[in-house]
Specification:
24% of the residues lie in helices and 30% in strands. It is α+β, with helices and mostly antiparallel strands and 261 residues long. The strands form 3 sheets. Strands 6-5-15-14-11-12 form a 6-stranded antiparallel β-sheet. A 6-stranded mixed β-sheet has the order 13-10-9-7-8-16, with no helix packed on it.
């Protein structure tokens, strides 16, 4: 490597932090648990030029093989979770950090080594084909999840697109015609295998399972309250039988779903 190339590499790496990571239980590596650990690097407001934007996760070969079949999806999932959880800690990233997994025969089972670094610049890449492939795989994953909402205990609403906007205005995807609902109240966004609920209103009237939330990774059975309107989140057609309609004299018949364009 010549001197100019060496200098370029040195300029790319601002700071490198290396640390061990161990997860509990007998299961394989959980993306939520890893993302929670990585989000500690963004604990509170900080200098964007100093915080890491690249993580290498070194795994035992047996652990690596468990996720190898869906490695790209797993990596993007962790990246998005880190971005989401960093926001909860008070640090809002412009884009997700890069997370890459590698084999390391020296690592023990249920443990990993994390190398966090700050990359000053990104090399250009031709992303057009890659983006198209991601969009196709995203839609396939959404349809496979077969997620839905049960509105007010009766109405079934399929979640079949990456972004679902909910609010009182007619240009939302799910229109809730009630004075207690904000014009733009909430969004449900797909994040690699999971839908995430985002409160986008200014009133703070979004709850999941009775707890106020701004962002929440949805799990089947979650009860969402948008002010006084209730929705239950579920996945899979078979689970429809788990949700029984409830008697509710205040059932909102004025809910409208925006048709596909």
């Amino acid at each position: 490597m010549n001197q100019s190339a060496l200098s370029r590499v040195e300029n790319l790496i601002r700071r490198v932090v290396e640390e061990p990571f161990t997860w509990l239980g007998g299961a394989s590596l959980d993306p939520f648990q890893l993302a929670t650990h990585l989000s500690r690097y963004y604990d509170g407001p900080g200098d964007n030029d100093e915080l890491p934007n690249h993580f290498r996760v070194l795994l035992n070969p047996d652990e690596f093989r468990i996720i190898e079949g869906e490695l790209d999806i797993f990596q993007r999932q962790v990246e998005e979770y880190v971005m989401l959880m960093a926001g909860r800690r008070g640090y809002h990233l412009d884009s997700p950090p890069i997370v890459r997994f590698e084999e390391n025969p020296l690592e023990k089972t249920h443990s990993a080594h994390i190398i966090a670094s700050r990359i000053k610049e990104q090399f250009p890449a031709d992303t057009a084909v890659y983006t198209a492939e991601i969009e196709d795989s995203t839609q396939t994953a959404i349809l496979a999840a077969d997620a839905f909402l049960i509105l007010q205990g009766r109405q079934h609403i399929a979640l079949d697109r990456p972004i679902i906007r909910i609010g009182r205005r007619i240009d939302n995807d799910i229109v809730l015609d009630a004075p207690s609902i904000s014009r733009f109240h909430a969004q449900i966004r797909w994040r690699y295998r999971y839908f995430v609920l985002h409160d986008v209103s200014s009133h703070g009237q979004t709850y999941v399972n009775g707890v106020y939330t701004r962002e929440h990774i949805l799990r089947s059975g979650d009860v969402i309250a948008l002010s006084d309107i209730y929705l239950v989140y579920g996945e899979g057609r078979d689970s429809l039988t788990d949700f029984q309609p409830t008697a509710n004299d205040d059932e909102m018949d004025t809910t409208m779903l925006k048709p596909e364009e």
